[in-house]
Amino acid sequence: MNVARWIGFVAARYISRGRRSSPSPVLSILGIATGVLALTVIISVMNGFQLGFIESILEISSGHLRLERVLPGTEMELGGKISELPGVLSVLPFRELNVLLRGRFQNPRGALIRGVPADALQRDPGLAGRLEMEDGYFDLSRPENIVLGAELARHLGVRVGNEVSLLSISSALGAANGADRSYTVSGIFRSGFFEYDIGWGFIGIETAAQLSPESAFPVLGIKLTNRWHDQRAMAEINRALDLWGITAEGGGHTLLSWREYNRAFFGALRTEKIMMFILLGLIFIVVGLNIFQAQRRTVLERREEIGLLRALGASDTAVRLVFVWDGFIIGLAGGGIGLGLGLLIALNIQPFFTFLEGVVNFFIFLLNDILAFLGVYVSAGEFAVFSPQIFYIKEIPSRVIPHEVALIFLFGFLSAVLAAWFASGKVSNTRPAEVLRYE
Q: 322-347 burial, b if ≥16 CB within 10 A, otherwise e?
């Protein structure tokens, strides 16, 4: 029998006997499984929220690249040229201006109005995929048409077909730019991102040019086939602009990546995820300490058997691997169970929370009935994990990122293996002659 086979044989005997005599391996497996399950589900839901915000910002607002200080009047032609470059998915020219809007409710409300071409949704499929038309159509074919966010329309008290008054404001001068102009609401959109739904609107780019101050420049929002290749795309676009001899009025053009334009917000999201990893990773530390103590106790209880193995010629490493094998099985079993259940819940997060809410509400109604039978009347509403009345979401998002899931499993597995390895360190202090002297 070779070394690997007898190590496995002895370890299997120890694990089997240990499980019958002590609940420690079972508790350790449950601890690892709980940690992997919790971290997988929580990180998946966090990814759903964070990636939803990030993609809303990139698809609606900033794009993957922004070419600023474009010469007025050339944005449409230049956008067509850039859209033909390799790696570029779409290019959308636009102008932005801050305005005051007034609807049926006479209190004015500030908003950011973006002027885009009438065929903006055809030019930019990413934008089209993020804007859900709640009422009407994204119709900017007429100069007097305007499309508003759902919450903005609600605050203004307008619907499709109603008119709103728009007062353009020059942020540079801090003064009104022209008198009030009336626009007809042709559509109401909902993006799922509250800041856009309550503070954004769209008009035609030609109309925006008339309202913009003379010092304002149009911008090109560039979408890439792969946003992580932004540096390569920037170099390609800069080379093309130099080749075409295109410069902006009053100085050179400015090309910004999504990493620079949203650095503060994306950095905050990254820090939030790292801190969540660290906090939930404490579960593995607690379980690892439990495995460490259990394995140390096992080593002390089996000193005679360890001495006998050493007397038969087993090396320190071989005997140590017998106990490490226990940690290997615990880590593999716990990590596998937790990963399987975590992925099952994360990929079916909405039915899971619906089931959870149903169970909680059942006990709430049961408690209400019992209290009513006893003459105590308590009005307890239905329980909801993420109520749409409180949170600005229709359903709970979840995104499973494979390499993060693999990392979570690895954390759980290694916490058990390393705990067993360090706990079995006393094997090397066991001397066969001392242990077997009185046997």
A: bbbbbbbbbbbbbbbbbbebbbebbe
Ramachandran category for residue 365: left, alpha or beta (phi over 0 → left; psi -120 to 50 → alpha):
alpha
Is 296's pLDDT higher than 70? yes
Which of 155, 159, 59, 41 is closest to 105 using CA atoms?
155
Separation between Cα atoms, residue 111 and residue 117, nearest integer Å: 19
Per the CB < 8 A criterion, the answer to whether 127 and 221 are in contact is no
- The candidate with the shortest Cα–Cα distance to 95, out of 214, 252, 189, 181, is 214
Buried b (16+ CB within 10 A) or exposed e, 121-136: bebbebbeebbebebb
Q: What residues pair up with 176 in beta bridges, in sequence order?
A: 169
Distance CA 32, CA 40 (A): 12
Six token digits for residue 52 = 């939803």
Look up residue 154 and give its two tokens.
């609600």
Taking the CA atoms of 229, 234, 239 and 243 in sequence, report the sign of the dihedral they define. Answer: positive
For 156, other C-beta atoms within 10 Å of its C-beta total 24
Phi, psi of 237 (to 5 degrees): -70, -40
Spatial distance between the Cα atoms of 63 and 79, rounded to a whole number of angstroms: 14
Reported pTM: 0.75
Classify 166 as helix, strand or coil. Answer: strand
Higher pLDDT, 262 or 341: 341
Model pLDDT, residue 175: 44
Cα–Cα distance measured from residue 399 to residue 49, given in angstroms and rounded to the nearest whole number = 9
Distance from CA of residue 269 to its chain's centroid? 8
Please report where in the chains the tokens 């360190």 appear, as a residue: 425
| Structure-block tokens of residue 359 | 């169970």
Residue from 190, 193, 194, 189 nearest 56 by CA:
193
Amino acid at 89: L
Facing residues of 346 across strands?
Answer: none
Residues sharing a CB contact under 8 Å with residue 94, sequence separation 6 or more, in sequence order:
114, 115, 116, 120, 205, 208, 218, 219, 220, 221
**What whole-number distance in Å separates Cα of residue 133 and Cα of residue 192?**
11
Distance CA 110, CA 103 (A): 12
The DSSP letter of residue 70 is P
The residue that leads in pLDDT, 43 or 16, is 43
CB 29 within 8 A of CB 334: yes
Q: How far apart are CA 6 and CA 10, in angstroms?
A: 6
Distance, CA of 72 to CA of 249 (rounded, Å): 8
Q: Return the structure tokens found at 243.
A: 């080749």
Average pLDDT over residues 196-223: 87
- Closest by CA to 229, choosing from 259, 269, 268, 261, is 259
